[in-house]
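Proteins fold reproducibly. Look at a concrete instance:
___
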Amino acid sequence: MATSLISGLIASGYASAQIWVSDVNPSTLQSLSQRLHVNITDDNRVLAEQVDVLVLAVKPQVLHEICRQIAPVIQQRKTLVVSIAAGINQDSLTQWLGAETAIVRCMPNTPALVLTGATALHANPRVDAVQKDTAESILRAVGLTLWVDDEAKLDAVTAVSGSGPAYYFLLMEAMEQAALNLGLDEADARLLIQQTALGAAKIALESSESPAVLRERVCSPGGTTQKAIETFQQNGFTEMVNKAMHAARDRSIEMSKQLGAD
């Protein structure tokens, strides 16, 4: 995700010389330096001393220790901190970084890897208007962005767009297996399914109509599509999706409690 953000920022016009990257893996740093010509260091404190905006793009299990390392620098420089670490809420980040820290917490998703991500953001009260614009511009470099007015909504966002790509992959996987059972070969089935998913998403994005209306337009009364949709509905498809997304939301809340500050 961090590499995608860096690539997106450079593609959006940010100068490589303005970007610093810290990582524990020397080969990762060398690769980024050679490919993207960014500044590199293996010392988080050195990085924190060089930047006005610091993006935390690390595993949540190591975030507490990293925050402990950089907190004095963050407090001195009044740095804007943008966190994309899953499961770590702003209360925990504030405890670890200092009460006056300007923090934007984000929930991106994996399509950011191909610059078609969807990211929700929430700012704490110490983030000013300029900093909000800066945070949004960083995440907008890899796709769509939107702000939520309540941090708790990020748990719902996790269930919708954060985990959402896997739901579509699961449907594609099931469709591919069914296509094989119907006699198509794997390559043809996969290509048809991928293009169909892309086309459906494009129609939905470009239309002002709801998914329900778009679905109804595809379904001819008594036709093949109508029969398939009726089969989905009769087997509890909508309720299954509802239960799955509630389970994802609940797990997001649980992770925040497990990974956050005591």
